Amino acid sequence: MVRYRELTGSISRSITEIGWRRLASWGSGAVLLLLVALYAGQAVFFNTQGPVRLVVYAFSTQEEVLTQSIFPAFEKAWEAETGQDLIIEGVFGPSGTLAGQINLGAPADVALLSNEQHVNWLKIGRQVRQETQPIVVSTTPMVIVTRPNNPMGIAAFSDLARPNLNLLHADPHTSGAGDWAVLAEYGNALMESGDRAAARAQLEAIWQNVRLLSPSARTTLTLFELGAGDALVTYEQDARLALARGVPLEIVLPPRTIVAYHVVVILDANVTPAERRVAQAFISYLVSDAGQETLARYQLRPANLESNAFPPLTAPFSVDELGGWSRAYHELVEDVWETGIEPSLRLESAPQPLDSRGD
Question: What is the Cα 48 distance to its own chain's centre?
Answer without folding.
Answer: 35
